[in-house]
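Input sequence (293 aa), recorded before submission:
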Amino acid sequence: MSRTLSKPRRATPTPTPTPSGDLHEDYPWGIRLVDHPPRFTSPEFRAAKNAAQHILAEVSADDLPYGPGPWEMHHGGSLHVKTPDGWRLFRARVGIEWSLQFCAEPGKVDRLRRDAQDLMAAFPLTVPALEAFGYGRARTLLGTPITDAAGVARWTDSIFNACVPLSRDNHQGILPGVPGEHHYPWPVKGADFIRYADFPLWITLPDGTHGAVTPLHHRGSGDGHLRLVYARHGTVAGRALAAAQAADRMAVIAPNSRLALTAFAAQIAPGSRTASQPLHARTPAGQRGAGAP
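Predicted structure, token format:
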């Protein structure tokens, strides 16, 4: 199913699907709400969640970091440490949301690993306790430099990133209810500190507002689609994201759109008509972007 969103001539009611599933207005761009790729819980994430549940079972109600369960495990930079007085949770300098790993530079993610390694060394009870819970990969994760997309993926789904315990509302809620972390800037803004310097996280949308985008796949994949990950609520793009969440789909921008060509401009050949092509970097990949550490 696809839905194309554009600017209405009069008021801006929430668009409804046609029988074909398309939404049409008159902006010169489009967003498709598409099914997620087949999703599964990675072995890394499954092991991390199991360890997190053991940790939370040992924490008193008054000491739970974000209130009582049931919890969803948020990829928000979860640095659980064991002190002589029990478990505590620190948030990493940057948390890596699952979808944002695809714009993450391995060297910058490795700095997060080294931060975690230093913190765990300061709390020496932590790693043995994780191992006692069956999380035997903790030492390997902490001690292995991150140099490629596979390493970024392992870190993204690990206990050291993927297990901030939030209620569903605090995780995914939308105002005027509870502002969940997935719908408001910090988890997206955090990607400014890990993204490649030649990929702009924030773009100007056709209505003049700003949205955040991420590649749909890893750097060098040749796929020039963009996934819209943040837009102001009440805008055309904001409604697209809300519709995508309600339908359990993604908001995707085509690789031949002006937005994709702008976002990938430093990675594709000059004058390209599509962003789906082999990497043609004109900016050193290691150069720091705005706001990068």
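Checked by second reader. Confidence is low (pLDDT under 50) at residues 1-21, 285-293.
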